[in-house]
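Task 17 of the worksheet. Students: predict the tertiary structure of the chain below and write it out as structure tokens. Keep your answer in the requested format; marks are given for formatting as well as content.
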Amino acid sequence: MIEIFDVICIGAALVDMVAQVVRHPADDDEVFVSDLTLLSGGAAANTAYACAKIGLSTAFIGKLGSHDTFGDKILNDFKEVNVATKLIKYSEHHGTGSAYIALNEKGDRRIYAHSGAANYLSKEDLIEKELVNTKIIFLSSLKNLEPFIEASIIGRNNKIPVILNPGMLIIDQGLKNIKKLLEKIDILILSQNEYATLFDIEECYLNEDLIQEKSSTLFKLGIRAIITTLGKKGAFLLTNRNAELLPPLNLSSLIDTTGAGDAFSAGFIYGFVRNINLKFEHLKNNVKIGNFVAGNCIQELGARNGIPSREDLNFFLNASNKKI
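Model answer:
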């Protein structure tokens, strides 16, 4: 019997080395690391983990080093929440990637990512008979665009919605160079920094009116919905006809913003997969779930420790008078 997944997440799986510091160093400076933690990471992998933890049938496609220590950790962490790993590809020539993250007392972070094997995922690794067995395709944060374009083509040919949360590795390539990918997706999820960079806007000047103005370019490419996460302001949902800013979760504490966008994507997918519908009111509910999952995430260290359980999510949905 063929397994049909709620979502297949495609992109990078890395291991994060998180250094906790009092402050970030200046030029030619040194700071003391009070704690160093090893965590599985990578944007698409984080979203896959979160999707599985909140109750979705989830598979991951990415490339790891063949039988190396970091790759083994990633696989073991996936298995804890039942992310399907049978579609993962392996490289004999490149090791599993890693990211080095410095996190200060305010929760601000600096990330240095070495993609390793992840960036060698090829379009030949994206096999149609594997990808058609899902309700949603999710793409995130891989510098190499070819496999994402291939996955998007497969999705479109088989009427499977494609969601892209690009990350700076894609955004830094410029609108002109990523246009071919954007033309083939349905929903675009961007951080405030990603949106500002994409349109060469100073982040401090970015607001909802400017997002609406600039997004006409994206809608002309065929994108159906755009969500821009705006940190403390919440998430701005935009379609061709409607727009609304949806507030974030009220927080008791903020520990670490690492993975907030990945968690938001998982919450959004949770809502979307249960009602695959691009009507604005349905999309609003999905964004609210995204805000809830992201809000929980940033109250713990790392991209995964704060992801709520399915029971916690159901409690939130019931309290909000929403259907599961």
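Marker's comment: DSSP finds twelve helices and 14 strands in the chain. The CA atoms of residues 183 and 221 lie 5 Å apart.
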